[in-house]
Amino acid sequence: MKLNLNIEPLSNWITAKSEPLLIAGPCSAETEEQLVATAHLLAKTGRVSALRAGIWKPRTRPGEFEGIGSIGLQWLMRAKEETGLPVTVEVATGKHVEEALKAGVDILWVGARSTVNPFTVQEIADALRGVDVPVMVKNPVNPDLSLWIGALERINNAGITKLAAIHRGFSSYEKTAFRNEPMWDIAINLKTIAPNLPIICDPSHISGNRDLIGYISQKALDLDMQGLMIESHIDPSVAWTDAKQQVTPAALDEIIHHLALRKPEIKNADLKDKLEDLRNNIDKIDDLVIQKMAERMQIVEQIGNYKKDNNITILQVNRWDEILQKRTNYAKALKLSTEFTERLLELIHSESIRKQTEIMNKDEAGQKAEKLTHA
Ligand code: PEP
Ligand code: MN
Q: pTM of the entire structure?
């Protein structure tokens, strides 16, 4: 599937001061002094292409600081005037859009808690109709690519062609080192189906912790994302929101300085040939893997028929345990990670079970239910 979005290149609406493209600023505008002073320090690094700050903050619990509100727009305009940096703000309602545009905000973004709700996104899209302003759409809180795509489509359908996605990670029940799991595959899938859609990574909200920002930023660049949005505060220790993940402008400068910029295309002909060779090898191996998978599934079918004829259950836990044990040991010896091997085997196993269930339940109702489950 390819997405049919009508999009302008990023360079039409934001000028990269340096590589990588960097949008930075505090999580929240707190006071005029905090915002303007932070903006000056960020501008001084020479690395920042736009200033971000939240003024309407969607908070998980009531009673927390919910943003300074519309007055923050004036502060943003002062920061813009004094530093020359274009400014961007999160909008979550049609009224926010109107106010931000009236004040002269250069770029708008839709937050993760808004992207989850098509009513909210549609309201924002309706307020944008007929306006030529760049909009960045964060991924939804939950790992659902369709919701992200849906939001991008709604904004694009309203006539917004200066469009980008922001990858800020996904909420997951399991607690890991990250505040929001990156689930890079989802961003890669979006890039695959919408190759001309710029994707900007937000390492701050993925990390939740300033120590991981450099690591996530590098990974995003290695995946050929088009830029970074990083939260930076003049004094993170006293920040009113997201204190743990904000960095001073000086620390931000340091993080960016250490990033390696790699190119998506190779100019050197020898290197190109070498890479071509390696890719040919990969292609051959992938073909073999698929061929072997098909052979495996044919045997699975035979086993299914045998089990059916002899009234044997599909799943035999002992056998599955044995497969898992033996294969992961073998894979480990071949330097494959256990996590990868287990995930791969589980995928193969669930497909085998699906096939056998199909064979066992030849009656129509069962087959229909199976099809629905795996749709
Ligand atoms: C933010 O950028 O400060 C913010 C609220 O982010 P998200 O919507 O990604 O949680
Ligand atoms: Mn934040």
A: 0.84
